From TrEMBL:
Residues 1-74 are annotated as: Disordered. The lineage of its organism: Eukaryota, Viridiplantae, Streptophyta, Embryophyta, Tracheophyta. Residues 46-60 have a biased composition (Basic and acidic residues). It comes from Ricinus communis. This is Dihydroflavonal-4-reductase, putative. One of its GO terms (molecular function) is racemase and epimerase activity. GO terms for biological process: photosystem II assembly.
Length: 565
């Protein structure tokens, strides 16, 4: 009964007529029981009781004295965050091995993680069952990223190039350290084992071309291959195929691979006058002596077109509804083409419907990703494309809507002729979440003398990630700043138009949120602070926002951006 008495106020003459209910009992009864217990005890117990009563009296007076800070919403918000952060720090340390708390750890957490307003989110569904490999754990973003992942319940592995004891001691004890080099494929096998997702935020330490190539290009390529090999190994153990593997629809490696492809000609309309001066059209599909499958020809007929078509033959048990789009590895003279899918009952092609999407190639070789969502029905009244019913693929060339291009000597090319070299056509696997988050850069803040070579290596690494078939998210932040995150509004853009910097904590938070956000899958975007020209309006502060699971700014920001970029 002392526990109840210690929190109950002492009854006064005014309260004796209408006693308050505390714990379901009148305060008079509780005080009487407390008095009985005091008399029954020793004198030392009575002294302790008096000391407790004095403490309670002083605390009650402090609670009754209210100041302006106590009702200020700014102060309330800050106090609530401090209390919550302290409780969470103690709670998260319960399951860890006992260790000496270092002052620099607490300072870094206070400066970079705690004072972040809307960026704090500790409850993420699925985090406890997810292992994340962080490459570049000692970078400016990586140091914050690792602690954010741990606070949210992820299992974290950090890839280090060498076993530097000072570097290892700077990382939390619960982080699993893996020694390996992104430039060495054999050392990455053990690094990706047991991992579900990868965040790559490593940067080259010098502007030497070889160093940039090894970290920004070759490193990304090697890690994606190692991760795909690991997923395929798991799939084989399950007697199946990895869900992250692309489905091969056509590979043009020999003359036999041309079997089944048909070259056809046609016109959109008939022009009796133009037909008198019609120079005709012609096209062919052949396997050359150089080992290339080439679809080439010309179309001089007004309203004419030529196309290459084949009925798809998928492996037993596979349908295209399990995939989200197509990827074509092609080369040529930079023409644009129309990709046509024919969908409907395979037994009755008369009920088939046509869907088209325009693709643009580059001079030389390139890879073109075409999501199924970009296909539109030829007839407006037809329903949207159902990949499950697709049975025929067609590549069409038409002279209209061709962009003028210059030849090697600077002369204008005839837009009515074309040449398309086909390497392969694959279906991209679908998925709800990102597998690989890559932190790239926009080029802002890089010295002009080395900006071109840095961007060249970064873009090459991005392209190798897109070709891998993994679900990816490519983040291109502006110049990084060492300041707390969550203090300013952010801009997400795909037009290479940003001009501001961004804090390392904000970039780390974006990477964490992108892991389980379906809108971030297969998207590349630039991000920076919002820029407002007027003085005094560039800061956005949430003064009393508690950590909230519903605070997801990334989904609405990325939902309007283009996919497969």
């Amino acid at each position: 009964m002392r526990g109840c008495a210690s929190v109950s106020p002492t009854p006064t003459a005014a309260s004796s007529q209408h006693p308050k209910l505390i714990g379901g009992f009148p305060s008079k009864i509780i005080n009487k029981r407390r008095a009985v217990s005091v008399r029954a005890g020793s004198s030392s117990n009575s002294e302790k009781e008096k000391e407790k009563e004095n403490e309670n009296e002083s605390s009650r007076k402090q609670q009754q004295s209210l100041s302006l800070d106590d009702v200020n919403p700014v102060g309330l918000g800050r106090k609530s965050r401090q209390i919550f952060d302290e409780v969470w720090r103690k709670f998260s340390g319960l399951g860890q091995i006992s260790r000496t708390t270092r002052a620099d750890d607490l300072e870094s957490l206070d400066a970079l993680l705690i004072r972040e307003g809307p960026m704090c989110e500790f409850a993420i569904p699925g985090a406890q069952n997810t292992t994340v490999l962080v490459v570049g754990a000692t970078s400016r973003i990586g140091r914050i990223l690792i602690r954010k992942l741990m606070l949210r319940g992820y299992t974290v592995k950090a890839l280090l190039r060498k076993a530097d004891q000072q570097v290892i001691d700077s990382l939390p004890r619960s982080v699993e350290i893996v020694i390996g080099d992104v430039g060495d494929t054999s050392s990455l096998t053990s690094a990706v084992e047991g991992c579900n997702k990868i965040i790559y935020c490593a940067t080259a330490r010098s502007s030497i071309t070889g160093d940039l190539f090894r970290v920004d290009h070759l490193g990304v390529s090697n890690l994606t291959k190692a991760f795909q090999d690991y997923n395929n190994k798991l799939a084989q153990l399950r007697a199946g195929k990895s869900s992250k593997s692309k489905l091969l629809l056509a590979k043009f490696k020999s003359s036999d691979s041309l079997i089944g492809w048909q070259v056809r000609q046609g016109t959109y309309f008939q022009d009796a006058v133009a037909s008198k001066y019609d120079a005709g059209m012609d096209a062919k599909f052949e396997f050359t002596d150089t080992g290339d499958a080439v679809f080439s020809g010309y179309v001089f007929t007004r309203g004419g077109y030529v196309e290459l078509s084949k009925k798809l033959s998928l492996p037993l048990g596979y349908t295209l509804d399990r995939y989200e789009g197509l990827v074509l590895s092609v080369g040529g003279n930079g023409r644009s083409y129309v990709l046509i899918l024919e969908a409907g009952p395979s037994a009755d092609t008369t009920q088939s419907k046509l869907y088209f999407a325009r693709i643009t190639t580059k001079v030389g070789f390139c890879r073109v990703r075409v999501p199924f969502s970009s296909f539109r029905a030829v007839k407006p009244d037809d329903p949207p494309l159902d990949p499950f019913l697709v049975h025929t693929l067609t590549i069409r060339f038409e002279p209209r809507r061709q962009r003028p291009t210059e030849g090697p000597s600077g002369t204008r090319q005839d837009l009515r002729s074309f040449k398309l070299i086909l390497e392969y056509i694959k279906a991209l696997p679908t998925g709800q979440e990102t597998d690989f988050v890559l932190v790239s850069c926009t080029g802002l803040g890089v010295e002009p003398t080395r900006r071109e070579q840095v961007l060249k290596a970064k873009r090459a690494g991005e392209e190798s990630l897109r070709r891998s078939g993994l679900g990816y998210t490519i983040v291109r932040p502006g110049p990084l700043k060492e300041e707390p995150g969550g203090q300013r509004a952010l801009i997400f853009d795909q037009g290479n138009r940003i001009s501001q910097g961004i804090s390392c904590a904000d970039v780390a938070d974006i990477c964490v949120k992108a892991l389980h956000d379906s809108t971030a899958r297969n998207k590349s975007f630039d991000v920076c602070y919002e820029y407002v020209a007027e003085q005094g309006r560039e800061l956005y502060e949430l003064v009393a926002h508690l950590p909230d699971k519903a605070n997801n700014y990334l989904t609405p920001a990325l939902s309007v951006l283009e996919k497969n970029t």
